[in-house]
Write a structure and sequence with these properties.
By secondary structure, the protein is α+β, with helices and mostly antiparallel strands. It is built from nine helices and six strands, in the order E-E-H-E-E-E-E-H-H-H-H-H-H-H-H. The chain folds into three domains: about 110 residues, Roll (Archaeosine Trna-guanine Transglycosylase, Chain: A, domain 4), CATH 2.30.130.40; about 120 residues, Up-down Bundle (Methane Monooxygenase Hydroxylase, Chain G, domain 1); about 55 residues, no CATH class.
């Protein structure tokens, strides 16, 4: 396994209000708190420091109880000052895990002593099989981003592969922390594989819902267009009786009917339009539909 760079203790510590920097991943952050600014302004590109995630993002000056004890060693890649403010925008690269042992100073910024954390069971056969399963799951997703393609090159390093994929999934902070604190590579790959399957299911569900909505909208639009065309034809023919059916339909559309009532109404409207608005049957149907339209569908009885 390649030995990752690790800073000499004590080293600077940057607490994040939210989000997680994972090994093999990268983040662009905006820092503006006095301690954070003092830390970054004392560094140069390539400098190493620790990054941890706060338990409560509202805490302004965190102490050890306010942040998670496992973090990531970061390499500073870029610093840019945010126009019109004192804040800095930085880009960092995640290198490896560490555990905070103790804080050695709080001013002008946090400095800690920490211990490097190594992967466990990363070279086992099961870890490699799980990594191949994760690779298959990603390839089955269809078109892939260049970042996913790049991550696939790490499949022969299961721990790094899981970290890299997790960093690309846009995980919630709690889920990303699960990955970060899991030193057992087999368990880590299982977790990431589960997140990939979960996101796939959510994506398929969103797609299905979107298709259902578009289908329903298309159906309603077609029905509306056909009714408007039919209404125009009947006006041209001087068919006032048939136009009465269209006006009645409009009134019923605005009545806020229940699904059950709408089903009955559609059936009766079809019968009415079939009569051409003429005869005793048409009169009975119109009376019935007028009565339905007049009911207070949107009103609710008070609850005792």
């Amino acid at each position: 396994m390649t030995q990752r760079p690790f800073p000499e203790s004590p080293f600077p510590l940057l607490p994040l209000r939210s989000g997680v920097l994972l090994p093999e991943g990268g983040l662009t952050l905006t820092v503006g708190r006095p301690r954070s600014l003092a830390l970054i302004e004392g560094l140069k590109s390539g400098s190493l420091f620790g990054v941890v995630t706060q338990r409560d993002p509202k805490v302004e000056e965190p102490v050890p109880a306010d942040f998670h004890a496992v973090g990531t060693i970061a390499r500073l890649s870029q610093i840019v000052r945010v126009p019109g403010s004192d804040a800095l925008r930085i880009t960092v690269e995640g290198l490896g895990r560490f555990a905070v042992d103790r804080v050695t100073s709080y001013e002008p910024f946090l400095q800690v002593e920490g211990a490097q954390l190594a992967d466990e069971r990363g070279a086992d056969k099961e870890a490699k099989v799980l990594a191949e399963e994760l690779e298959s799951a990603l390839r089955e997703q269809g078109p892939r981003s260049s970042q996913i393609e790049d991550a696939l090159r790490f499949v022969d390093r299961p721990g790094a592969f899981a970290d890299r994929v997790a960093g690309l999934l846009g995980l919630e902070t709690s889920a990303a922390l699960e990955v970060l604190v899991t030193l057992d590579v087999q368990e880590r790959v299982r977790k990431v594989l589960g997140f990939v399957f979960e996101q796939r299911e959510l994506s398929e569900l969103r797609q299905k819902i979107g298709e259902d909505v578009r289908r329903e909208i298309g159906k309603n639009q077609r029905e509306h267009l056909l009714r408007e065309q039919l209404r125009a034809i009947r006006r041209e023919l001087g068919d006032d009786k048939a136009d009465e059916a269209s006006k009645l339909r409009d009134k019923l559309d605005k009545a806020g009917l229940s699904d059950e009532a709408r089903e009955v109404v559609e059936r009766e409207l079809s019968r009415l339009e079939g009569t051409g608005g003429q005869g005793a049957e048409a009169t009975v149907i119109k009376t019935y539909l007028e009565w339905i339209a007049a009911l207070p569908w949107s009103a609710r009885a008070p609850v005792n």
